[in-house]
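Entry 14: structure prediction run for Membrane-associated phospholipid phosphatase. Input pasted below.
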Amino acid sequence: MTGLVTADRGIGEFVVVDALPEFVVVVLAAVTHLADPWFLFGLLAIGYWFGSTRLTASPRRAGATAIATVSCTYAAVALGKAWFAVPRPPGATPPVDGPTWLPGVLSTWYESQVLSGGFGFPSGHAAAAAGAYVVLALLYDRPSTPRNRLAGAAVVAIAVAASRVAIEVHFLVDVVTGLLLGVCVVVGSLRLAGDTRIRVAKTNRTDLTRVPADLDPFPVFLFAAAVSGVAAVVAVVNGGTDGVIEAAIGISTGLGGAVGWLLVDGDEPVVPVRVAVPALLGTGGVWVGAYAVSSSAVVVLVATFAAVAVVIGLPALCLEKSVSSASVRP
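Run finished. Output tokens:
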């Protein structure tokens, strides 16, 4: 199986990349942030906490399902990378031949973008971009039309995928596979959550209207944890330390989301801004920081579990506090 994807899997894409103006490559290096884990963490949490009925019929259920879906996407990527275990392109390793006109701070930023470790197939950024933006377009169904929302999601996902090739941290096949993987995970996750819209009818058309109000993200979170568990086993067998850490994040994200959802009824109001801002900074710092500074899978698992459980359970915790405060007023 692993022989299906080899280290030398390019088709000459970097000849085109090398012909791009340096300014374009720098801009694309910034575009790749649209699918960074920290960015998607914040975006999905904000959608979950602040979504209203102007966006979808059941904002809390839609938001949690979106988070669970992206968790499944990362789990699938972790499994794929551990299974195929093929390196990134040579351009992802030192030395960096960056633009000389970038000032010091931006030069450091650019270097951090174009130097990437770990395995290269499939592209996690491409998969996450497809998974996140497509699922948001499907679940937040009240703005605009399905065609416009999906077109916007496709533009962002393809732009992220192109950026990964432009900064030479992925081959073209990596990002194309990542995009397809992200879309497949969205379809499977929504069906697992009880969304019956995505189906092929007798007319061979897909109904993208009327998001069900009874979506259940719980089994999707559990599935993300299970797939991540398989990825951890494969990574251990293949001796990939980085893969074990990524899989640990997936396990704790899935379990944390499932436990957090047990606290939620699904019809809670929006989270107050005074609570959301420190919660986002705190949980985001714990989630990203644990991965960045720790080489211990146990530390990463515990920290991520706590952060995700708080994010998912926060609407219920805020509602409970609000009810308690109202009951003690004279």
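Notes: Residues 13-100+116-322 form one domain. Will compare against the previous run tomorrow.
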